[in-house]
Amino acid sequence: MDSNKKYWKGLEELNKTPEFVELNKNEFAEPIPIEDILTGGGLTGRTPRRDFLKALGFGVGAVTLAACQPVPVHKSLPYLIKPEEVTPGIPNYYVSTYDGQAILVKTREGRPIKIEGHPNDILAKGGASAQAQASVLDLYDVNRLQGPLKDGSQTGWAQVDDFVVRELLAIQASGKKIAIVSSTVTSPSTLGVIADFVKQFPAAKHINYDAVSYTGIIQANQNSFGKAVLPHYNFDKADIIVSFAADFLGTWISPEEFTRQYVSNRNNKSLESKKMSRHIQFETGMSLTGSNADVRIPIKPSEEGAALIALYNAISGSSLAGKALSNKVAQNAVTIAAKELLAAKGKALVVAGSNDVATQILVNAINSLLGSYGTTIDLDNPSLQYAGNDAEFVEFVNEMKSGAVGAVFFLNANPAYDYYNSKDIADGLKKVRLKVSFATSTDETSSLCNVVAPNHHYLESWGDDNAISGYYTVMQPTINPVYDTRQAEQSLMKWSDNPAKEYYRYVRDNWDKNLLAKGGLSGQSGWETLLQTGFVKETPKAGGSYAFNMSLSAVAQTISDHSTELTAADGKTEMSLYQSPAIRDGKRANNPWLQELPDPVSKVTWDNFAAMAPADMKAKGLQDGDAVKIVANGYTISLPVLSQPGQARGTISVAVGYGRTVVGPVGINVGKNAFPFYSLRNKTFQTSAVATLTSVGENWPLAQTQTHHSIEGRNSIIKEASFTQYLKNPASGTGKEEGHKEYKPDLFWQKHDNPTYDWVMAIDLNACTGCGACVVACSAENNVPVVGKDEVGRRREMHWIRIDRYYSFDDNGTEGGVTREHAIADLNVDQLDHVKVVYQPMLCQHCEHAPCETVCPVLATVHSSEGLNHMAYNRCVGTRYCANNCPYKVRRFNWFNYWNDSRFDNYLNNEHTQLVLNPDVVTRFRGVMEKCSMCIQRIQAGKLKAKIEKRPLKDGEVKMACQQTCSANAIVFGNANDPESEVSKALASERTYYVLEELNVKPGVGYQTKIRNISETEA
Fold it and tell me: What is the architecture, at CATH level 2, of domain 568-704?
């Protein structure tokens, strides 16, 4: 025995040690004084919440009262049914709208707890993005402003109203300008209120400002066709898609809609019809869209313009002058793309993510040659999203700085953070007399304003939306206002003495006069029908074809000049800025579900970074996490680097949306702000720059949920084939075409008896884009806790479903260019320049011969008579034998009481996440194992409903949370005992295989192979 160590003589002595006393305080704190509960105070970073009352101690009495009162003052109607009152234990569903998309809001006992896509929504057909799923959590954020502020202090609405009206009248008399700065407004009623405000104050002007701008496309259409619109793209009508850095599956314009369209030509149904679209992507960094492409070509930002000019010349047969494309691989791909685009005239689509007007004009010229207008591109039924005008906003900033602006109102806009020159915003606002923000919580811009009139959360609001021409959705409150907030439209009406007086009345009148008739509705019955169905849709106009007649000489010269400016000299690097699919532009940075959602490609959480090509990392002697100082456009930040296969050499990619400095505790100082790297060129914001990189000499570890890149030779995990191979044999890639071995149970593994239901799942790898919406939906449905960056760094994330990302590396002599025989460390850097990606949703496989069940000493995990692997949480003692025995590594050990441990407050914000909990699912405690339950609560609810109605359960009546939110319909769930069920038909596909099938565990989740539409010359 080591004499230098001190041992306790017994538990009594242990109980007196300082460490144990401190731990005991954290676990069993003194009760919170009732005064603090009533006033909403009393919670600190060290206060544990061991029970429900303590969880309510932050002042959610407001939430409880809001939930218990009739919802709302003007009665909303639940989706399809009209209950007499809220029934405990029975959810109500209300239609609403998020980002122009019709949604359903699930409420329990008056509390909104879950967002679902509306099954009849024309954009996503029932799908919902990760942002939509996470939006319900923002409702319960205690960092929301709980009342109006004046000069940084709490005040009343009457005082704010008197002050603002008095100031507006004085400013109007002075002759100074009034500005309403908002992100793009697509609500007809909101636009009406703003128009009425401008009538009352003629000096006022509405300015649309989007942190991520699409001005280049809108202005290019104005120059090309005389229509200043953002087109409505139809990816489902395209047989071939060529994209230049447009991440249309991740963040570009309308990704949920585009995902649904894109996958319709590539999923199991399409393949069985022997049809598959082809997708070629040119880009700098590996985006979600690029990772799904059939062919992906890494190019530098400076090469994009040259590649487009080369494509135009190849299609038109002309010789448009411009900078030559020196990238031979890209030139070869352009030649192939041109031939295929011409062969698919009328069914071809070329898109570009650039915000440069000249670049977009050239794209218009290419699409006109291909006959895309009126088929794959619709200018007559345009998208109304992202109407921001960069030049108008820059003019407004200059007017502020000159002292010409007397008042400014900010609605869902935060330019003090996301404008490329935030100093101009701060300096300009100093010269503005009245500065009003409608921010729901304090942000960088509202902190510079003398009045903050906090807006409602959208789940507390009346309103509407019109994101796509002819498609109108309605927004109705699902809970009374939690805090003393007021809808921004109501404030503008109050200050402009609008005769409607009340915004609900304004919305109702607008629909009665203008919008109900578009759906063939009218009167009170029409309004009630609208509140049940959620939207109206006009018959779309016939999409016209548009001839392009502009001269392109000056356009090509502008593009070439821009390319020359972006070409990095020796010792410098070209930088590309992008949005991550989770954080986007940073407005939702305080949402922990989004912060912990892994980036689809890098799998990094809670941070942004500089992605570099492995060859560049090797040349500079850098390792993952090494910090570098990045200097560009007069701005400097330091970020960790990450080796990213597929990144163009000589470049780095950095995500915007991070580095918030005035935000709640979840998002503050997470990552670094990259917006100041933007530049203004030809009156539009540009997302590329030339940067200098210098090593800092430190390593800042990144928290990744997946740190391996290949599958280390285990070929039974991912199965893939080319479209050519599939046409020859639909079973290509599965191994069945080579004499598939059927694994049968032996004497020790008798098949379980599943007399009525045998619940199984099918996942189409060709449909899954890897977006991660299913991860957030699962967290919302099943009360999956957030653990924070440190715990993720220890590989302790709790997600029940994960999206594994695997790379396929080109290997000479391998048919189709697919090999997984090597670990990534064994490959040379040349092989890492051109990689292919497969995404695989991985969850508990609910094995027939589950290896976890045989090793559990307390029978905490058992097999059900319906084919599911159950977990009895209160029986689990945390041996973790089951996790060790699981070949899929899908079990999560709860290391701490993540829901109730004060150490995780900064990440979990327990004060509001407790209120979003699904009461049908128990929260798990420390020391137990948890994993996917196949949403057993949904299965039971579906069976109970069928039993009450005295009928069998219908196929498709029960949908998993992950399945329901997937815009790609990549996940199918159902009863294998029903041969006519959708899942039975999916699993009968010749493309179906089972992961690690050779282990004979008989998983209940089948996968369909990944098929790529590539030619042998591209292998």
Answer: Beta Barrel (2.40)
